[in-house]
Amino acid sequence: MDLKGKPLAAVVSAGLSKFGKRDGFSSRELFSEAVMEAFERCPNLDPKRDVKALIVGSMSESFEHQCHLAPIMSDWVGMLPAPALRVEVACASSGAAIRQGVFAILSGLYDVVIVGGFEKMTHRTTAETTEYLAMASDFPFEQWNGATFPGLFALMATAHMYKYGTTEEQMALVAVKNHHNATLNPKAHMQREITVEQVLSSRIIAKPLKLFDCSLISDGASCAILTSVEVARKYTDSPVYIIGSGHGADTIGLYERDDLTSLKATKMAAKEAYEMAGLSPKDIDIAEVHDCFTIAEIIAYEDLGFCKPGDGGKFIEDGTPNLDGEIPVNTSGGLKAKGHPVGATGVAQLYEIYLQLTGQAGKRQVDGWEIGLTHNLGGSGATCIVHIYSGHKY
Amino acid sequence: MMSEPTPFTVEQFYKFIGERKIMGVKCEKCGKIFVPPRPLCSNCLSTSLKWIPLRGKGRLLTYTMIYVAPERFQHLAPYAFGIIELEEGVRLPGIIQGVKPEDIKLGMILEVDFNLDVPSTWPQWPRYFFRPPQQL
Hints:
The complex is a heterodimer of chains A (394) and B (136).
Chain A: E1 9-16, H1 27-40, H2 47-50, E2 53-57, H3 69-76, E3 84-87, H4 93-106, E4 112-119, H5 126-134, H6 139-143, H7 149-164, H8 168-182, H9 196-201, E5 204-206, E6 209-210, E7 220-227, H10 232-235, E8 240-249, H11 264-277, E9 286-288, H12 294-303, H13 312-317, H14 334-338, H15 345-357, E10 371-378, E11 383-390
Parallel strand pairs in A: 2-3, 2-4, 9-10
Antiparallel strand pairs in A: 1-7, 1-8, 4-7, 5-6, 8-11, 10-11
Helix pairs in contact in A: 8-12
Chain B: H1 10-18, E1 23-27, E2 33-34, E3 49-53, E4 57-66, E5 79-86, E6 91-96, E7 109-115, E8 127-131
């Protein structure tokens, strides 16, 4: 199938639960909250009649002692007997759900599907959460021999600092930027400005990463309604089109990879998505990238081609990814401050791009953007999913 | 006399660790050496493989000091953790002991050592770790 330069599917609506410590709410209720918003935004949709299937992503059954989650979500949003499927590639689970939703539509079998993601995390102790999140890395070699999840990104940070001279101050700037953006996002987990000083003096988690270099443990859910390009205009006058989709894979173990300062999965996913969209990095106006740790955002600038390898630190220092910069990155506040309910993240990134491209981003809206990108990582980079979106008319 | 074939499994890797041996798997077709072991060469898909002993000496590629540790390592925290490239080209992650944090340098030579304590429930694996070469 030649997909180059063609819209693959349309986003006609999207919804997001409030992210944060949502005491007393489980993932099914959070997912319902997200879906209710998506339905409200799309009055022309008759969900019972139109929605043909659900594809959702979440990372771990451990948090809620529950697997077989997909039909639960379908039931809770009144979509049964619509078939429902859950996909799992760690923190990239709902990025993968978007891609599977695109495939389902391109197959011709369905013309309207709900894609989404969720994770309920904050009811667990820090030790439990650390353990469950570490499951996204290699158990027999990394976890068994002392790795933690922040520890793996710290290994990349050390390597990046050593090879390119990247500094802890530059990493801190990523956190400061994303916290600022989150103050403009009422759904963000943490709406509080921070300073470089605060980041640098926060307690060490895994050197050189400190508490404020790490994303948040949050509860939350996200969803989007995808349709075929042909029927999109039945539901909205301003669909956002998905014009590129890429999926890269690499070894589960960070230690098995040749380059510790770059993620091959991101480069592969980006290349596939750019080629499909017929675009290059310079065409991207706005991006939501996977800032699970500040160093991950710096490496993403480089691997997505926004700057040269090694220039990621300078890129943030120059303010290029700021809200008023040339390529605003993580206008939502990112995983860092909007929050990171891991399974919800991929579609939450889509949600932000959808709001921005349709002029619904409120106080953090910047106009004149037409092409958006989402970058969703799984684990320490064994999976990466990239999507490219267009606000153009087709 | 026929001996039992040793499977190319993670379990077998740790059986060797229990014998204070660090072993890799070599593909007899393309020559690639790999850890973790696997029954199929990830490079050329050959199943013609053999276990080979690794010298257990290598250089430090990158490291971190882990302050927030999982329960089973809390007694060591903060501890150094790094990726070591062995002389044979294979890379392994592991805890680094016997060096002061301020003396850890990328590129430094480290040697594998063993901790043979085994838990009572799955996985009943011992552990390896790294330390500076011992002076004689």
